Amino acid sequence: MVGTLYGLGIGPGDPDLITLKALKILQAAPVIAYPAPEDKDSLARAIIAPHLPGGQKEIVIETPMVPGRFPANDVYDKYSEEIAAELNVGHDVAVLCEGDPFFFGSFMYIYARLSERFETVVVPGVSSAMASACQIGMPITSRYDVLTVLPAPIPAEDILRRLQACDAAIIMKVGRHFAKVRDVLGTLDLIDKAHYIEHATMDNQVMMPLSEATFEKAPYFSMIIVHKRGEAWK
Amino acid sequence: MVGTLYGLGIGPGDPDLITLKALKILQAAPVIAYPAPEDKDSLARAIIAPHLPGGQKEIVIETPMVPGRFPANDVYDKYSEEIAAELNVGHDVAVLCEGDPFFFGSFMYIYARLSERFETVVVPGVSSAMASACQIGMPITSRYDVLTVLPAPIPAEDILRRLQACDAAIIMKVGRHFAKVRDVLGTLDLIDKAHYIEHATMDNQVMMPLSEATFEKAPYFSMIIVHKRGEAWK
Predict the structure, then answer these.
(1) How far apart are CA A167 and CA A144, in angstroms?
(2) A151 to chain B nearest CA, in Å?
(3) What digits encode the pLDDT tens for the residues B126-170?
(4) pLDDT digits over A132-178, tens only?
(5) What is the pTM of this model?
(6) Are A155 and B144 in contact (CB under 8 A)?
(7) Which end of chain B, N or C, is surrounded by fewer C-beta atoms within 10 Å?
(8) Is there a contact between A112 and B11 if contact means CB atoms under 8 Å apart?
(9) Could you say which of 3.40.50.970, 3.20.10.10, 3.30.360.10, 3.30.950.10 is the CATH number of the domain covering B128-227?
(10) Scanning every residue of chain B, which has its alpha carbon at the shortest distance from the alpha carbon of A20?
(11) How far apart are CA A217 and CA B39, in angstroms?
(12) Closest CA to B32 of B58, B62, B64
């Protein structure tokens, strides 16, 4: 008997934004695994901490965070083998993913290495993008709106071009690219149609109209939502 | 004492894909409201039926479904007043929304009419877009991918233009626009990089590579996911 690999979307930050399905799997799994930056606490583990029954083995996927670079393949090779060893002795392993596992989630690197060797179930989660729109209090898309999701690290000219071709935009992973993104939105005269939010649904959530965001840098878990049509959904 | 208006994302279809937060509010609310097509059962109510404690008042938001047309404003005017009457006598009202309330959800019409008059809490949910990617087993976006979400009813030339400018696309509400969308994907030589899915996570879910979808029409709750980079996330 080999175990099942689970990729669990655990939602954007509020522990109650986990799904019932992910909660049941989380609590039943003998082994859980989650990413953590080197020498820092894991956000994913902090989010689900109130739900842990105790007594589970925990695998910490230590991921070096170097700005502008993705973790090297050998990080995921190593932890995939550690997870595979548990699966091979019949233990189910639940890998935790902030937000949704297949929407910019690092679970996909584990999935790429193990899903052909082991039975794998991926449980979708509430993404920070959807949660941010709810917190800000403005629908992202209505009727026939076209939405574009952009990672802030791409070049300014690409951001500009994509923003011209949509009705609404979610700009993810703003972090140290904040000033660049704000400049692009200024060029397009969209500052007044944008909102900034960081740590959506967490205790340290901060949000404001972009026009009031006068800083130059933002934390990694921050985003900007642009509603080009303003309040046309009303 | 007036009641609180809740907009609850209830997820894509599997009853266990509701969040803990939405579940608690759903079970505590004295009044629930949900959309239903005229003379048909409500999908939203069917999704949460296993969780209902019984004894709640139910408001059915009967919505005429005319292909190519959105419900007239007076439909939402009427039901908003019915909900307001409950709020005014101190009853909380939980309005159910398939998927996420602010991602193409009809809750926004109630929200537009009542959120300035009553305390309102919007609870995000797992969208069918995220759930579909998990069911198909291919990450939507990785690293610096740009994602575009398109409603299928927009003109073919707009779909074509937007597909040219992204790495991944989710084409929503495919329904009777299926043949048009498939033709556009054929023009762009993207048929082999697309998957079709209907009723994601429900008992009647159907999915297949788009190349195997030889029909001409699809149900309303269907979508096509395009991964232009193929399996580049591996």
Answers:
(1) 9
(2) 6
(3) 999 999 999 999 999 988 999 999 999 999 999 999 999 999 999
(4) 999 999 999 988 999 999 999 999 999 999 999 999 999 999 999 99
(5) 0.96
(6) no
(7) N
(8) no
(9) 3.30.950.10
(10) B16
(11) 54
(12) B58
Residue contact A19–B24, C-beta within 8 A:
no
Does B76 reach chain A within 8 Å, measured CB to CB?
no
Q: Are B206 and B191 in contact (CB under 8 A)?
A: no
* CA–CA separation, B209 and B206 (whole Å): 11
Q: Do A166 and B158 touch (CB under 8 A)?
A: no
CATH code of the region A5-123: 3.40.1010.10
Q: What is the 3-state secondary structure (H, E, C) of chain A?
A: CCCCEEEEECECCCHHHCEHHHHHHHHHCCEEEEEEECCCCCHHHHHHHHHCCCCCEEEEEEECCCCCCCCCHHHHHHHHHHHHHHHHCCCCEEEEECECCCECCCHHHHHHHHCCCCCEEEECCCCHHHHHHHHHCCCCECCCCCEEEEECCCCHHHHHHHHHCCCEEEEECCHHHHHHHHHHHHHCCCHHHEEEEECCCCCCCEEEEHHHCCCCCCCCCEEEEEECCCCCCC
What would the two tokens of residue B91 be?
A: 């009853």
In this structure, chain A runs to a length of: 234
**C-alpha–C-alpha distance, residues B197 and B216, integer Å:** 14
CB contact residues (below 8 A), chain B span 103-162, against chain A: 103-105, 108, 111-112, 115, 120, 122-127, 130-131, 133-134, 137-151, 153-154, 158, 161-162
